[in-house]
Structure formats: structure tokens, C-alpha cells
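Residues determine shape. We examine one folded chain.
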Amino acid sequence: MNGLLLTDGYKTGHHQQYPAGTEEVYSNWTPRSNKYAPKGCDKVVSFGQQYVVTWLHEYFNDNFFSKPKEQVCSEIKEELSLYLGADYDVIHFEKLHDLQYLPIQVKSLPEGIEVPIRIPMLTVVNTEKEFYWVTNFLETILSTMLWQPMTSASIAILYKRIFKKWALTTDSENLAFIDFQGHDFSMRGMSGLESALTSGMGHASVFLGSDTLPVISGLRKYYDAKGFVVGSVNATEHSVMCAGTKEDEIRTFQNLMKTYPKGILSVVSDTWDLWKVLTEYLPKLKDEVLARDGKLVIRPDSGDPIDIICGVNRQIGAELPQEKGVVELLWDIFGGTFNKEGFKVLNPHIGAIYGDSITTERAEQICQRLYDKGFASTNVVLGIGSFTYQFNTRDTFGFAMKATSVVVNGERREIFKDPITDDGVKKSAKGLIRIDLVDGEYKLIDQVSEAEEAKGELKIIYKNGEFFNPINLKQIRARINGCI
């Protein structure tokens, strides 16, 4: 697809609408509100800028600059003339093609840090006077691609904070476990491959567990990831269990353990009767489970995850398996140890995972209920799916890219947006901006001079087709872990 189509239709006329003599348009990308974000998401993780700018650079090279000018400009002229019902003049596109690079400068805050709401994270400005229109022509594609990796990373860090808080309380010697305690199962429910990739990379900037395989290639290409990127385990699905038939489910377990005599093996266990698996099959398989050189992980997949994992309030005199829940039933069969905090830790040959409908609220409640029962929070892995990562929009953090400064006939004009009918969320900064780090917190200073704008924490990452200040996945993860 022609790179010039990567924008909103109404932007195709903006080059004619700016004041005569416009030479520069300066815009910034800002999270304006956490009104619709999960409770506890008070900041936004800076992540995805290098990926998006690299993608954009390569896309324009492959689908505009490297193709014959007559071909790509004739194509866009035909399409936009039909679209607008007029003879569309493409001379500005022809001049851009002659230039052979995107005449913009992009500055960004470091990736891997947390940014308060209403603090700009990125700025874009044209570098050639003739191409003032390019800045906001690119707004749409930048917005389309930036909001999701930042949103998913910001939500992932909330999960990790929950896990760390409870691990410190119930199993402080096993903090490394939390890197894998939140596992990405979202790919099948995302809106498309690009969505799965960008969200999955956001998750993987925080956690090491993921079943979204495309993130491996994405992080290697865009963030120079080396060696291990994300990991998972051998695991079954319902089709595997069903193929073995209900009557032979215990034999299916046996065959799986023979197939995988070592390592972690996750078995979906509620295709028919989870409680039967936990009260009849596993006691019979106890010796085989303990003889394996690895861990058998029981995976329920239906019902209220809090009650399934932790049990429900017991009735006097009753002792139903669902009243105990998965973790306690596993303890009854396989036992375990008490750690230094005095909490129960399951035998290392057995474990549990729940990978469906785990919200941050449910993650908190599961950890709390395990605590109440005397179990370490690290006895369970929780899957994070598309209900968490796809059930978001650009408005989750109110992201927007807005122009705050223009130059017309050599005169700089500070511009801003502040609708009288709005509640203040849409009010923008004014003029050129600088972001300073003051006592560990990022602060916005607007209406600065050009000399002042060149200072601060916003650093150039792209200019006129060249990249600056690259960052890799290892550095990003180190920064994120330093925030938790």
C-alpha cells in the first residue's frame, strides 16, 4: 500500500489550510488522562517509540521512496481525486519523493521509564520549511501504532506490582518467579497480527512469559534482543484431552508424562471434571508425578478463577473439593514445605496456572485469598489475555498528538488547545516544550525558547532518515524493573 495512504482522509488538504508562509509545525504525543485505565495505573510506561519510528521509516522507504515517483504519485492522485471529488494536486508529494527521506525530527523520553499523566513523551517537528505539513500528516499513523504498546506495558507493570507485593509478603526468596507469573495468552483475541505484536511486545517489556510468538521476532528486530526473549512450556489444549476420550483421561495424563519426562508440563484439566482430576486421578498418579524430573502444572480454564484456585467459603461439616480449591487440593495430595515467612509452598513437582479472564482485580484477590489460607502467592501462574490487552482504546490513557508551536514567515507562534466545553482533559501544552527530571519525577515546562527546547530529557531518536540514541530490550527491562 502506498505510504501516503497512512493517514486520515481529512489531512490530505491540510497543506493548503495552514497560513501562507508556514514553515514549521511542532507537535507532541501526550497521555492526557487515566480516567478509563485500570485502577492503579497512575503513570504510563514509555515503550514502543523505537519500534514505531523504525517501522514508519522502513514502510516509507519500501512503499514510497524506493518506487518510481510517477507510479506512486499518479496512484495517489487518482485515488484522492476520486475520494475528494476534485482534481487533486500532488506536487507536494512529488517534492517529498524527490527528497527521498522523511524530513522530520523525533524526540522521545527514554523507553522503559514511567511517565506521569499529562507529560509529553514524544515530539515531532519538520526539518525542512517546505514540508511543514508532514508533521501532522504523520499524526494518524503514529497515534495508531503508539498507543497500544504503551497501554499494554503500563497494564503489565500493574500486574507485576501486584505479584511483587504478595511475593515479598509470602515468598520473598522466590522473587524471580514473578517474571513468569504473568503469562501472555492474548494473541488469539487481539484485533489482528499487528495488535498482537505491539501489545505482546509491551507485555514482554515487563514479563518473560508469553505464548505470543511474534514478539520474539519483533523484539529481535526492533530492540536488538539477544538470547532468551520470552519463554513458555509444553502444554495441552482441550482437543488433546478430548481426543483421548473422557473415560481414558487418566491414561492421557500418563501418556503426556511419558512423552515429556522432564521439564514443566501444563495440562488443561477441566475439559470435563476438574474436581475428579484433583480428587481421583492425581492421587492415583502421585508416584508418577513425583518421579518426573520436572513440574506438572494443572490448568483449570472455566469458572470463577478466584474460587477455582482458592476455593469458596466452607459450610459447616462440608468438605467438597470446590470448597478447598485447586491449590489446597494439590497440597493435600503432594504436600510441600513452609518457607521462612511461614507460608505453604507446593512440592516442586506440582503447580497450578489459570489463564482465562484474569483481571488486575482478580489477580489481587487470588493473591489475597491464598494469603488468607496460608499459601504463598507464588504457587500459581496467572495468564493475561485479550480481555485485559484488547479491551482498551487510545482513550484508555487519553493519548493524543497535538501541535503546540508553528513558525509562519519566520515568526514563532505558540499555539494550544483548550476547548471551553471540555473538562480540561483536552487542554494541551503551549509552545515549545522541555521535559525535566526533578527529584525522580518528570516535569513539563512549556513556552520555552528554542535553546531551552534543545535541553531536557527528550532526546532525538530520528532525524532526516537517520536513527539516534538506540535502546535495546535488556536496557528497557532493567529500567522497568527499577520502577517496580
User: Anything to note?
Assistant: The CA atoms of residues 311 and 379 lie 14 Å apart. The radius of gyration is 27 Å.
